[in-house]
Amino acid sequence: MKNIKRYEVYRTILAIAIALLLGYLLIFFTSMPKGDMPLGEKLKEAFQAANKAFKVFLTSPLVKERRGKVLFNLRGFIQWMNESVPIIITGLAVSLVFTAKQFNIGAEGQLFIGAAVASFAAIYFPAIPIIHPIVVILLASLTGAAWASVPAIMKSKLNASELVTSLMMNYVALYMGLFIIKVFLRDPNAGQLVSLPYKETSMLFLINSRYRWHIGIIIALVMSFLLWFIVKRTTWGYKVRLIGNNKNFAYYSGINTSRTIFQVQVVSGAIAGMAGIIELIGYHGRFLWLFSPGYGWDGIIIATLARNNPLFVPIAALFLSYIRVGAKTMGRYTNIPPEIVSILQATIILLVTAEAFLSRLRQKAIEKEAKANEPNNVAVAGGDVE
Predict the structure, then answer these.
(1) 386, part of any domain
(2) What letter would DSSP give residue 73?
(3) How many domains, the chain?
(4) Do strands 206-208 and 213-214 pair parallel, antiparallel, or not at all (unpaired)?
């Protein structure tokens, strides 16, 4: 088992390295100057421009250069932390359903409708410090759970595909959420479709008020540990993992698989429902999405990179948000489009999910572990014979 886990780590690192190499090559060819120049001069200029852009891409979330000095980039660091929060939470939600081998991809709709409904509490609930943001987050969580219960019921009672039902529910959530904001919560003084401002007491505590670094990252990390504990250290979590490994075996072992699958999807919806509103009450201060923010789809990427392990979800989310912040900064200071990060994401996911990628190395890891355990197995067999 240790050799196989080590193989998965190596495979993920190699996939990231290949993606970064591809990114560098794309930057290099994008930086190639046009016009009548000797090929050697073009290559030299492209090489220098690519090195400069790639350096900004890799380092800008942490450091910046000013007047020849290298300084800590507090603004970039806070942007990195804040952008990782919603995708950590959606990654946790998706990893839970994927652990049970349920391909529910409704996190995008759950966070959107959860944020829209919870905006009522953020605007109209009494201004009680500390209690107010808790009520807002709980309402978003309950809304996400209620929204997830629809495909969950259809799966457990009618055996309908949760992939199809959750996907369609995303579109319903989008337009229903926009309807709620437009009809009930719209700010008439704003120049676009946004909600009324949230009450100050509904906002999360700020670690840094200048760049609005909120405590969402702490909430996300605590949730990661709690979900890991539930999945790995509780009876219910064992049932979820057993269903994911072999649903029929779990059923004939006496586990009520339909009920557990329903619970998994509802709990996942409750987690996903929190992601959107934490982003809004932490940073923006009002509902301002005119379309889906995409955090639910990012959650699928994060869960895949983390191998559905809640403890690895923050690491994967921090990596993804890091390269995104780096790409945005690179786009501001160079002529390289920040959309390059989408190519990197796609390359990493393709290599990580491709079973044939480094399959020979995996086979060697299995054989090595089997040979290492062979003396123990022989000893146990010999003891049984005696």
Answers:
(1) no
(2) -
(3) 2
(4) antiparallel
Q: How many angstroms separate the CA atoms of 255 and 248, rounded?
A: 10
Token digits of residue 72? 């800590």
Do 255 and 351 share a domain, yes or no?
Answer: no
Report, as an integer, the average pLDDT of 291-296.
92
Shared domain for 14 and 96, answered yes or no, is: no
Cα 262 to Cα 101, 171, 314, distances in angstroms: 12, 21, 26
- The CB-based long-range contact list for 370-378 (8 Å cut-off, 24+ gap) reads 372/3
- At 386 the pLDDT is 43
**HSE of 233, CA atoms in CB hemisphere, 13 A:** 7
What pLDDT sits at residue 243? 94
In a domain, 65, yes or no: yes
Tokens 């609005």: give the residue.
212
Domain residues for the domain of 120 are 75-322
> What per-residue confidence (pLDDT) applies to 69?
86
> What are 193-237's pLDDT values in tens digits?
999 999 999 999 999 999 999 999 999 999 999 999 999 999 999
Q: What is the CATH number of the domain that holds 192?
A: 1.10.3470.10
- Domain assignment of residue 310, yes or no: yes
Number of other CB atoms surrounding residue 366 within 10 Å? 14
Dump pLDDT digits (tens) for 342-355. Answer: 888 888 777 777 65
Stated as kind and residue range, the H or E segment containing 214 is strand 213-214
Q: Are residues 316 and 358 in the same domain?
A: no
113 with 182, same domain: the answer is yes
Q: Are residues 157 and 290 in the same domain?
A: yes
Whole-model pTM? 0.89
* pLDDT surpasses 50 at 190: yes
In this structure, the answer to whether residues 83 and 66 fall within a common structural domain is no
Instruction: Tell me, yes or no, whether 98 and 232 share the same domain.
Output: yes
Q: What is the DSSP letter of 283?
A: I
Q: How far is CA 379 from CA 2, 254, 371, 372, in A?
A: 21, 34, 13, 13
Tens digit of pLDDT for each residue in 98-151?
999 998 899 999 999 999 999 999 999 999 999 999 999 999 999 999 999 999
